Write a sequence for this structure.
């Protein structure tokens, strides 16, 4: 079989993949949302365009507007169907991974918020209210697969590592899948060092690639195979996970409890920190020492 024939066959296998074909059937799920999350401007939208370009195997097209996401203007969680089963989901990029940004991401990964809606960094219990309002808009039959996107050219600062590690671990607890990490711009920085750092965080899957862009979309065997290999591994993991899942409605309720607990703990912690700040900034008049003249 020639390389082109093999590429054609694997591409067709990916595009025809159905959850019904899994060893234990679909387990009540009918589609997969490949949920991208991460920092602003790290290549999530370019990754979507790259995946569409490879799987469609036609002319390069801009589906996700990279120019807007670079400027921080994309504020919605947007779906990009790849096949009848697989859908990539873009997301508003985080700027600092604080508890409000991560709370929103956790609610998405828990399948508690609808897609194709605006993303808010809700303060206090605003996120809880949105989760309650979204109950009838979200389908338990949507399987959420987490994908963390990080740009090699941005570099990975030591002070970022604890927050990223904590976020990845909570995402694992919510979805029961340790997020796959996609490293973009792999030739524009210390890719080996960043790979080691993520592996030390417990990441099992790392995919390093160079996205196709409007300026650089010359098809090469290496870049093409990199994307196809990513989808092959995702499908293998989906088949593995579906053998071990329970009822979608029950699992969604369990995830909801975890996220609501996170929100509650977050608010308690924020109140405590605010009280401590107020205590530190309270000016207590100093007693002036008395002087006795002799």
């Amino acid at each position: 079989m020639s390389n082109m024939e093999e590429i054609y066959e694997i591409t067709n296998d990916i595009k025809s993949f159905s959850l019904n074909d899994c060893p234990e059937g679909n387990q009540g799920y009918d589609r997969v949302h490949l949920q991208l999350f991460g920092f602003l401007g790290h290549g999530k939208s370019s990754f979507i365009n790259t995946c569409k370009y490879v799987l469609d195997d036609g002319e390069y097209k801009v589906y996700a507007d990279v120019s807007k996401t670079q400027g921080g203007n994309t504020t919605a969680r947007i779906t990009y169907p790849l096949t009848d089963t697989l859908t990539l989901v873009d997301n508003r990029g985080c700027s600092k991974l604080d508890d409000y940004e991560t709370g929103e991401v956790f609610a998405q990964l828990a399948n508690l918020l609808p897609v194709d809606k605006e993303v808010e960094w809700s303060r206090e219990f605003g996120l809880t209210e949105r989760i309650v309002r979204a109950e009838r808009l979200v389908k338990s039959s949507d399987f959420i697969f987490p994908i963390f996107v990080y740009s090699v050219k941005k570099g990975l600062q030591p002070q970022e590592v604890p927050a990223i590690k904590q976020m990845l671990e909570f995402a694992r607890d919510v979805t029961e899948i340790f997020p796959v990490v996609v490293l973009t711009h792999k030739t524009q920085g210390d890719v080996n060092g960043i790979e080691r750092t993520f592996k030390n965080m417990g990441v099992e899957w790392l995919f390093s690639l160079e996205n196709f862009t409007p300026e650089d979309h010359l098809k090469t065997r290496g870049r093409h195979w990199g994307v196809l290999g990513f989808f092959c591994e995702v499908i293998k993991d989906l088949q593995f996970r579906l053998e071990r899942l329970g009822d979608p409605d029950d699992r969604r309720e369990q995830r909801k409890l975890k996220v609501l607990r996170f929100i509650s703990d977050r608010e308690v912690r924020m109140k405590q920190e605010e009280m401590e700040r107020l205590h530190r900034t309270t000016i207590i008049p100093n007693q002036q020492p008395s002087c006795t003249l002799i």
